[in-house]
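hey so u asked for the seq, here:
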Amino acid sequence: MHCLFAISCNLIHLLRMNVKNYIAVVIVVFYLGLLGYLYFGFGQGTTYPAKPISIIVHSKPGSAIDYMARKVAEIARKYSDVAFVVENRSGTQGLVAMQHVLDMKADGYTLLGVTKSFLSTVMVNKSKVSLGDFLFIANMVSDPEALISNNERNFESLDDVIRDAHTGKTQVWIGPGTGSRDHIMALKSWEIFGIDAKWIDYKSGPQSILALLRNESAVYVGNPADVKGKSNLDIISIASDKRLVSLPDVPTFKEQGYDINESMWRGFAFKKGIPEEAREYVTKILQEVVNDDEWKSYCNETYVFSSFESHEEFTTRIAQEVEETNYYLNKAGLLVSYVKESRIHLLVVFLIIVIVVFLLLFAFNKFSISKINYDQFIGGGIFSLSLFFYYQTTLFQIPETVNITSPVLIPGIWIIILLLLSVILIIKSKNNKTERVNSSPKTVLIIIVFLISYLLAMQWIGYFFTTPVFIMATMYLLKYRKIALMVINAFGFVLFSYFIFNKLLHIDLPFGLWLL
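ran it, structure tokens below
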């Protein structure tokens, strides 16, 4: 009887082991299938397009570019074999959306909604994102710049605005953004009109409109659609070659004697390197959209010109406008460096800070190394890093012409919090007699190095390759030796995170630059 019980236990144990092994094998197979699907297109079909095409928009739902993208996606259903799906990724005036597209594979399935404002965004923010990273495939509309006033001002023409500017009072012009297209339109107008005025940045279009409704400025620089539903606002002039069909009574600049043609174009771009068949297919669909009666109705309703330009024309236009944008941003003093060069090399500064902090920590423990424990060691490290980051914030400089929140503000808040927390950690751990530094924290330090290496490698090699390696290496360092469970945890976590982030939350995990 005892023998039978022992054999049964051994069989159960063996079956359990086999079950774990089988599960591990299945998970690895699914993992390899996921890699094949993501990186080599297995299961996605061989002809383009084989799945929906994403349109990435840099602003929130309801904005002009968002509305245009959704209208394109709606009309494209009539002509496309796959759906066009709009995704909003707002932040940093378009840089978040641009970087997201650059982080994706150049496979023709991630389309970026682009506007003329991106020219200023890339130049002023001095980001690593470059306009040269994109293939501009089609311009869709031309939304003319417009000078708008409160009708209490009684401005009936551009000459009225000019006369008012010469009365001796400082004339105020408003709009969303410093260095924005509206700001550049204002600078160009002042130069041609021969007047001096003051620009006030109201951060957003709606805030600017509210200020104009309160009659807080002489002129608001925006677009014709901004006056919809606002009977006490008048469009003085639009900067286009011809009048809008939907606003036949609004004159152009040229009709009033001033040669200004300035429009906010909106179109689409891919990351460079997409297959030629993808460019041809999407361009053909966009041409079909522009020729559709529903699109023409949309343009009339939103007070814009339908202005289709293919890749060559669009690219030429952008190159010309980059030069003009650069001229006016320089004139406004917006293309200066926002970071001063440190008088001392940053590595030397960091070493000085670390030495000083740990000398203070040494003194705090009555000049006894043996009394410094893990918590104090970690607290001292955090304190040193916080001081180093604070030093870097002192190198930020904002031109007087730029009316923006200082970039020091948010980092400064976090730095102060980290400094306080690290001081509290050091003080509270002074009497802790356990886990001294001289007890060799080798494993912890190795894991920290692994973590840093993992975070750096993820950007180059990709989340899906580096994550299972990191998880298994960490488990091994922590003395875990059950291979099947290590495999299940490492590769299963990758499958789970892909399902949660990519599929449910639509947040794309890094694919790695080496395969993009």
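The chain is about 50% helix and 15% strand. The first helix runs from residue 2 to 40.
lmk if thats what u needed
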